Amino acid sequence: MAGWKQCAFGLLFGIALVSPAAADDDTIRIGILNDQSGPFADFAGPGSVVAAQLAIDDVGGKVNGKPVELLVADHQNKADVGSNIARKWLASGVDAIADVPNSSVALAVNFIAREQNRVYLATTGVTTRLTGDACSPTTVQWAIDTWAMANGVAQGMADQGSKSWYFITADYAFGVEMERQVTEFVKAAGGSVAGSARHPINASDFSSFLLGAQGSGAKVLGLATSGADMVNLVKQAREFHLAESGMKIASLALYITDVHALGLELAQGLYLTSAFYWDLNDRTRTFARRFSDKFNGKKPSVFQAAVYSATLHYLKALQAGAPAKDGAAVVAKMKSMPTNDDAFGEGSIRRDGRKIHPMYAFQIKSPSESKGPWDYYRLVGTIPADKAWRPISSECEFAKKS
Questions:
Q1: HEC string for 285-319
Q2: CA dihedral defined by 361, 366, 367, 369, rounded to 10 degrees?
Q3: How far apart are CA 274 and CA 388, in angstroms?
């Protein structure tokens, strides 16, 4: 499979390039740009490559007779590294870039893709700026965003009478934006924020942050972080016995790979919102089975599912005649077509590039409730698609003109 050869090359050298002579050949090239070995590797990383390949397999490996190849690179969670890779990829013939965890890298890639008129499938970048002031006619934001996650978890806590919050927040774009948006929802529901603390990426000791939360008197500890930092923070929060003292822990960005790393003994009782869970229905189970067969029995995260869903819809748009080298035309075609796949079911893409589908509220099961590996979530509520996402932002200039 040529795509996997390209993938291996990308991982070895940090960036896979297409020769300038090949830039206009009859091959569709998709670059998976993400964190392959750092704090976000579990929920994206190599699993995103597996998911993209499943989508390529679904169209028979070709689009209108043209083979589809995958390339992979590790952006190391650095905007300058990600920008450099994106520019070189697009200049050398890559037609679309997908994934891109870490909001600062995602925003940089979003700008470059618009500048070069190539498609950016923002399946892991969750900042609402991608459909706000940084919206682009060449970008589609797929799985979740900070507004949808904030809306779901803040409302869920308010419904249970827990309205006072303390935040421990990752000190980068995603965490800061998430804290801000949850704060708005908390205050709109009549709640309050007792305080917050910000931590650097790849932190190891959260004791001082947890002591601040413990002494705040808040009823909810909001964890506005993700990846390995989230896992370590939850572990240390359990050591401080915050839940036993009556403080609910709401993860604003907890993913199934985090729960798997933690184990149910530590993760049980945590609240979260998500757009995907592998055991949600027959279709999600079908997709998860295919993914697991290719990925050592692991179940897909919401982001890996989104890579599959977005890549498949992108390829369908090309099958329908959209010209691969014209990113704006491809995205326009994607918006004109309803979305439908085993991971996310039926949906649509709004004119600002926001993929529309329901969101779900979950609570992590206890060990006694779980029936086996990866049986982790209990569905506690569904947020309909028409209520799950913020309205189109006035900051998105091209959407207003559409």
A1: HHHHHHHHHHCCCCCCCHHHHHHHHHHHHHHHHHH
A2: -80
A3: 11
List beta partners, residue 237: none
How is domain 147-274+358-386 classified at the CATH fold level?
Answer: Rossmann fold (3.40.50)
Report strand pairing: 66-74 vs 62-63: antiparallel
142-174: pLDDT as tens digits: 999 989 988 888 877 887 888 899 999 999 888
Could you report the per-residue pLDDT of 226-252, keeping only the tens digit for each? 878 888 998 999 899 888 888 988 888
DSSP bridge partners of 196: 167
Run of H or E including 26: none
Does the structure show a pLDDT above 70 at 386? yes
Region 207-219: mean pLDDT is 94
Query: How far is Cα 88 from Cα 289, in angstroms, rounded to an integer?
Result: 35
Whole-angstrom Cα Rg for the chain: 20
Whole-angstrom distance, CA of residue 94 vs CA of residue 15: 12
pLDDT in tens, 185-197: 999 989 999 999 9
Check if the beta carbon of residue 153 is closer than 8 Å to that of residue 271. Answer: yes
Q: In the chain, where does the domain assigned CATH 3.40.50.2300 lie? A: 2-144+281-353, 147-274+358-386
* Share above pLDDT 70 across residues of the chain, in percent, rounded to a whole number: 94
Q: What SS3 class is residue 125? A: coil
**Residue that wins the pLDDT comparison between 384 and 231:** 384
Token pair for 93: 């013939």
CA-based max dimension of the chain: 65
Mean pLDDT comparison of 10-19, 25-34, 309-318, highest-scoring range: 309-318
Expressed in angstroms, the distance from the first to the final Cα of the chain is 40
CA 80 to chain centre: 20
Q: How far apart are CA 51 and CA 46, in angstroms?
A: 9
Average pLDDT, the chain: 90
Amino acid at 256: I
Cα(230)–Cα(224) distance, rounded to whole angstroms? 8
Q: Which fold has domain 2-144+281-353?
A: Rossmann fold (3.40.50)
**CA nearest to 302, candidates 323, 270, 272, 332:** 272
